[in-house]
């Protein structure tokens, strides 16, 4: 405690240049829908199906209570505050088709043939990279923290070429490239449907005593892009707006599940993200377009994958419908999620106040997002599917023009390390 | 099985396990052979074996036990088990010869007793506040003496750096430590003499006056020694902590007070432009504040293109690519010569674990494109000498708390960068590589066709860990001054000593010399390019069509 009291002086100074954003104090949640008792059963069923949080009964109780208190009453504002708190944790509606699914996702279709490894047992990513010395994950806890990793030589080059390939394809499709900040205020995160301020948070934050109270590390570029569009009004004919961004993603959670060992689930990684803003009528076709874009991007890389339409309980709170693409990972002998795209309808736009204008009519836009390339998982899929029994990794034709014509990744020239023998 | 019967076998497995062959420890006579000098040396310097406790690095010779770390080994030396073992080893082991003598061959000989002492405990090493060793050597004396031998030079360099460290204070602290050390060794000598006399007297006249007097004296000295321990330790720590704050030695290329410009390309732009306004007009940037800005469209392509261009230049000169994590622990920040508790030098992450907060072991957000991230890779590692010189680079983010209130791309806290890192065997090799890198920078920036100049930074602007820095500057018309957009720093073995980054040459541990630098800082370059006389357009090298071949 002594320590913090010394720093309080610094903290105060920092506050001066943490100029705050101007927000409307309450998100414009669709009260007419949620607080209409006719919709009670529909909403309750939806929450149950999605195994989501939120309590519609409490919302209605608070709403009734608020209606019966006069606006001038002292308790009115605290009631209103309560109501919006309860409202904002309710999940989005669910697509009618998705509601029919039970527990399991439905396979939309499969792409590419499964590569057969008849004459030898395919190895796992960590084993291949260990043999070729392409990655280091061991003994880093002391210097970089839990589950850190370094890509070396060929693998780092493959990462760069994946970014080049993805971005140049997206630019051809008239996506607008944006470079985003990775440190964000809490308001933006909450509007994207992330719960913060609880103990088991998924989000890293900067030390509130040192750097001001409200700075978090972005978990995906979707959050930063939503922050860019916050409080904007778009002309109807300027929509749809298609954005793409390369960013670092920071996630505090990891897992100890054996299927997710190695770099399958990590604290920090590079990702290319797509983000689209459309009018309400066009959001469903835009979701199909994003899915198609993803399929085109991944299919050219040659590995087998399947496209899934996810069931209600797999959807995050903001999503209305979500497609996942899972790649076949021969080393692990399982499918692994390499990307997802979801339609958030007006869930985010209402919280972030993003509107469109059609003559005199104002309405909330629909937002969609999708992964274009999540580096670690993409590398796992590429390396495991393109391994060679002799110990090299072939680079897919599509990527070769971005790797300077290199066709194979071979053993890395960076030397192996030896743990220091600490003689004292 | 009835409950009662179960009770009869309590403790059986526990005993059985103890008696298993695999749990059998060495016998006393085996240990006796281990105590021979050759064997002892081998056992105390074993190779790393990851199957044994502590990778076989902490071995107690007398108890034939492995310990997980130095601390537990030292703790073990204080235990009864260990002392009993020393006692047990005093008696010479029973031999065939002795048995023969007992049976009547030869004459009876009293078994000899020997004095057994705990193996040579650690040589001293420098530790810092959080207890991790940072300078490893036989004696800290060497460093201090080296420092005080050329004290005038050090004082002169401190003056040039405008550094406010008080050398006299360090000298004082060190002399206090040495005085205490002297007192201690005097006591030690006295005590030894007394115990010698005592051991002689105690048999002949166990209750005489002199014996009792000596006993009391011995006790007194023991007490004094115990009392001395704490002040001695704190004196040592204080001296070492101050010493560690001393900056790196200056390199001969570092000018005294004015930057030494040694290369200029083209001439500076003349029109007065402000990059924030231009970017806004072109609609390629949304600048909210220094911590939060967006590059849009061409500016974002500029960011990626610039990085890819520099990467290809580096790959051509045989640099190897890395992809680094963004977090490092406090140890690394401190080892690189920065104050890890200072929120103005690095971003400190919020500690929301259940574990207790330790200010010396926190996570810092520095970005993969930083010296810290490379050092985190090499900390506490040994290289084979044949792999040096090492030439690696990475592209990534660099996060630095914004140094100023003023909104501009020059003060942003998040930058995309290309960072390079190099380790060499000798200072000579380092110089050669240094000039090679300067040529590379010159070539890379001349090809872009903008005005820039290169210079050696003056001593007062260097960081404590740097001994020399070459910077590439472009002219900002909004600031009306030159802005550093790239740099390469020499740091010698300053950091490698602190973070135990070593290589072995002729069986000797050596510290590699380090060169590091930010070859490209995208926001600063972008700001300067926006302020050029011509309209902003993407340089050809950065365009998407040139990303592939």
UniProtKB/TrEMBL annotation, chain A:
Keyword check for Transit peptide: no
* EC numbers on record: 6.1.1.11
> Which positions bind L-serine?
220, 251, 273, 369
Q: Which GO terms describe its molecular function?
A: ATP binding; serine-tRNA ligase activity
**Gene Ontology biological process terms, A to Z:** seryl-tRNA aminoacylation
In this record, what's one Pfam family? tRNA-synt_2b
Which InterPro entries does the record cross-reference, listed alphabetically?
Answer: aa-tRNA-synt_IIb, aa-tRNA-synth_II, aa-tRNA-synth_II/BPL/LPL, Ser-tRNA-ligase_type_1
Q: Any idea which positions bind ATP?
A: 251-253, 266-269, 337-340
Annotated positions for site Important for serine binding: 371
- Keywords assigned by UniProt? Aminoacyl-tRNA synthetase, ATP-binding, Ligase, Nucleotide-binding
Q: What class of enzyme is it?
A: ligase
The residue ranges of the Aminoacyl-transfer RNA synthetases class-II family profile domain are: 178-396
Q: Which family does the similarity line name?
A: Belongs to the class-II aminoacyl-tRNA synthetase family. Type-1 seryl-tRNA synthetase subfamily.
Q: What is this protein called?
A: serine--tRNA ligase
Q: Species name for this entry?
A: Diatraea saccharalis
Starting at the broadest rank, the lineage of the source organism is: Eukaryota, Metazoa, Ecdysozoa, Arthropoda, Hexapoda
From TrEMBL, chain B:
Q: Which GO terms describe its molecular function?
A: ATP binding; nucleic acid binding; ribonucleoprotein complex binding; serine-tRNA ligase activity; zinc ion binding
**Pfam families hit by this protein:** tRNA-synt_2b (PF00587), zf-C2H2_jaz (PF12171)
The record's section on SUPFAM superfamilies has:
beta-beta-alpha zinc fingers, Class II aaRS and biotin synthetases, tRNA-binding arm
Outline the extent of the C2H2-type domain: 58-87
Q: Where is the Aminoacyl-transfer RNA synthetases class-II family profile domain?
A: 313-539
Q: Which top EC class is given?
A: ligase
Q: Which GO terms describe its cellular component?
A: cytoplasm; nucleus
EC number(s)? Answer: 6.1.1.11
Gene3D superfamilies recorded: Bira Bifunctional Protein, Domain 2 (3.30.930.10), Classic Zinc Finger (3.30.160.60), Serine-tRNA synthetase, tRNA binding domain (1.10.287.40)
**Swiss-Prot/TrEMBL keywords:** Aminoacyl-tRNA synthetase, ATP-binding, Cytoplasm, Ligase, Metal-binding, Nucleotide-binding, Nucleus, Ribosome biogenesis, Zinc, Zinc-finger
What is one GO biological process annotated to this record?
ribosome biogenesis
* TM spans (from-to): none
Main localization category:
cytoplasm
> Which InterPro entries does the entry link to?
aa-tRNA-synt_IIb, aa-tRNA-synth_II, aa-tRNA-synth_II/BPL/LPL, Matrin/U1-like-C_Znf_C2H2, Ser-tRNA-ligase_type_1, SerRS_1_N_sf, tRNA-bd_arm, Znf_C2H2_jaz
Q: In which compartments does the protein localize?
A: Cytoplasm; Nucleus
Coiled-coil zones: none
What the record says about family reads:
Belongs to the class-II aminoacyl-tRNA synthetase family. Type-1 seryl-tRNA synthetase subfamily.
The protein's assembly and partners = Associates with pre-60S ribosomal particles; released from the pre-60S particle very early in the cytoplasm.
Q: What does the function comment of this entry state?
A: Involved in pre-60S ribosomal particles maturation by promoting the nuclear export of the 60S ribosome.
The protein in question is named: Zinc finger protein 593 homolog
Question: Which organism was this protein described from?
Answer: Diatraea saccharalis (sugarcane borer)
């Amino acid at each position: 405690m002594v320590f913090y009291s010394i720093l309080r002086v610094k903290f105060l100074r920092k506050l001066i240049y943490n100029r705050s954003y101007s927000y409307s104090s309450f998100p414009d949640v669709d009260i007419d829908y949620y607080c209409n008792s006719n919709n009670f059963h529909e909403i309750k069923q939806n929450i149950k199906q999605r195994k989501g949080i939120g309590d519609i009964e409490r919302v209605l109780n608070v709403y009734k209570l608020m209606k019966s208190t006069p606006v001038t009453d002292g308790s009115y504002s605290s009631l209103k505050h309560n109501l919006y708190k309860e409202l904002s944790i309710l999940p989005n509606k669910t697509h009618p088709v998705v509601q029919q699914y039970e527990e399991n996702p439905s396979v939309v279709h499969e792409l590419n043939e499964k590569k057969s490894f008849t004459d030898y047992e395919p190895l796992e990513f960590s084993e291949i990279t260990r043999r070729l010395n392409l990655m280091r994950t061991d003994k880093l806890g002391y210097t970089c923290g839990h589950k850190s990793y370094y890509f070396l030589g060929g693998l780092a080059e493959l990462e760069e070429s994946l970014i080049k390939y993805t971005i140049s394809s997206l630019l051809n499709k008239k996506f607008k490239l944006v470079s985003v900040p990775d440190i964000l205020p809490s308001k933006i995160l909450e509007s994207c449907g992330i719960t913060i301020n609880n103990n088991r948070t998924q989000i890293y934050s900067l030390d509130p005593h040192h750097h001001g109270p409200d700075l978090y590390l972005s978990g995906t570029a979707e959050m930063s892009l939503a922050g860019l569009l916050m409080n904007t009004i778009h002309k109807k004919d300027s929509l749809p707006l298609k954005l793409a961004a390369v960013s670092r993603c920071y996630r505090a959670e990891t897992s100890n599940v054996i299927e997710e060992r190695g770099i399958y689930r990590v604290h920090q990684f590079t990702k290319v993200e797509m983000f689209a803003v459309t009018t309400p009528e066009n959001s469903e076709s835009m979701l199909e377009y994003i899915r198609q874009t993803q399929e085109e991007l991944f299919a050219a890389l040659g590995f087998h994958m399947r496209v899934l339409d996810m069931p209600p309980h797999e959807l995050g709170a903001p999503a209305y419908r979500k497609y996942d693409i899972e790649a076949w990972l021969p080393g692990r002998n399982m499918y692994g999620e390499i990307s997802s795209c979801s339609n958030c309808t007006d869930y985010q736009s209402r919280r972030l106040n993003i509107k469109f204008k059609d003559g005199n009519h104002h309405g909330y836009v629909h937002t969609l997002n999708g992964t274009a390339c999540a580096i670690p998982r993409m590398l796992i899929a590429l390396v495991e599917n393109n391994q060679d029994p002799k110990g090299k990794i072939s680079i897919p034709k599509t990527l070769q023009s971005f790797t300077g014509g290199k066709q194979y990744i071979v053993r890395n020239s960076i030397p192996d390390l030896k743990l220091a023998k600490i003689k004292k | 099985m009835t409950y009662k019967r179960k009770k009869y076998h309590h403790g059986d497995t526990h005993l059985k396990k103890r008696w298993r062959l695999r749990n059998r420890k060495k016998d006393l006579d085996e240990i006796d052979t281990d105590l021979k000098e050759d064997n002892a040396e081998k056992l105390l310097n074993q190779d790393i074996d990851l199957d044994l406790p502590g990778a076989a690095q902490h071995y107690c010779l007398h108890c034939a036990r492995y310990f997980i770390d130095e601390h537990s080994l030292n703790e073990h030396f204080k235990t009864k088990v260990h002392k009993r073992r020393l006692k047990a080893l005093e008696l010479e082991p029973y031999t065939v010869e002795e048995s023969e003598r007992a049976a009547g061959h030869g004459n009876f000989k009293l078994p000899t007793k020997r004095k057994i002492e705990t193996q040579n405990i650690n040589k001293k090493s420098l530790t810092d506040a959080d207890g991790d060793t940072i300078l490893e050597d036989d004696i800290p004396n060497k460093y201090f003496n080296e420092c005080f031998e050329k004290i005038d030079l050090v004082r002169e360099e401190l003056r040039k750096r405008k550094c406010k460290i008080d050398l006299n204070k360090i000298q004082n602290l060190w002399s206090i430590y040495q005085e205490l050390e002297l007192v201690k060794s005097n006591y030690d000598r006295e005590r030894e003499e007394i115990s010698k006399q005592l051991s002689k007297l105690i048999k002949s006249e166990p209750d005489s006056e002199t014996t009792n007097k000596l006993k009391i004296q011995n006790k007194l000295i023991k007490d004094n020694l115990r009392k001395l321990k704490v002040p001695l330790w704190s004196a040592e720590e204080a001296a070492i902590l101050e010493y560690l704050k001393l900056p790196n030695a200056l390199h001969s290329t570092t000018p005294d007070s004015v930057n030494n410009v040694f290369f200029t390309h083209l001439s500076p732009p003349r029109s007065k432009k402000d990059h924030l306004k231009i970017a806004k007009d072109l609609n390629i940037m949304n600048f909210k504040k220094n911590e939060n800005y967006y590059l849009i469209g061409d500016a974002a392509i500029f960011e990626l293109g610039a990085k890819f261009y520099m990467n290809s230049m580096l790959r051509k000169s045989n640099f190897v690519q890395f992809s680094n994590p963004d977090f490092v622990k406090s140890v690394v920040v401190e080892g690189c010569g920065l104050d890890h508790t200072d929120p103005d030098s690095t971003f400190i992450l919020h500690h929301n674990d259940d574990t207790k907060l330790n200010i010396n072991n926190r996570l810092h957000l520095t970005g993969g494109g930083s010296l810290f991230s490379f050092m985190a890779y090499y900390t506490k590692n040994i290289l084979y000498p044949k792999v040096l010189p090492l030439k690696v680079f990475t592209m990534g983010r660099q996060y630095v708390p914004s140094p100023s209130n003023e909104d501009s791309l020059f003060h942003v806290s998040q930058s995309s960068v290309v960072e390079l890192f190099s380790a060499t065997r000798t200072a000579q090799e380092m110089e050669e590589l240094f000039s090679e890198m300067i040529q590379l920078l010159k070539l890379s920036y001349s090809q872009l066709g903008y005005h820039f100049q290169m210079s050696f930074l003056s001593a007062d602007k260097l960081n404590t860990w740097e001994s020399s820095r070459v910077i590439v500057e472009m002219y900002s018309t909004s600031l009306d001054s030159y802005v550093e957009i790239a740099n390469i720093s020499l740091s010698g073995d300053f950091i490698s000593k602190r973070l135990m980054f070593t290589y072995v040459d002729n069986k000797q541990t050596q510290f590699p010399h380090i060169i590091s630098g930010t070859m490209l800082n995208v926001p600063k370059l972008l700001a300067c390019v926006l302020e050029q006389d011509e309209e902003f357009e993407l340089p050809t090298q950065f365009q998407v069509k040139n990303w592939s071949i």
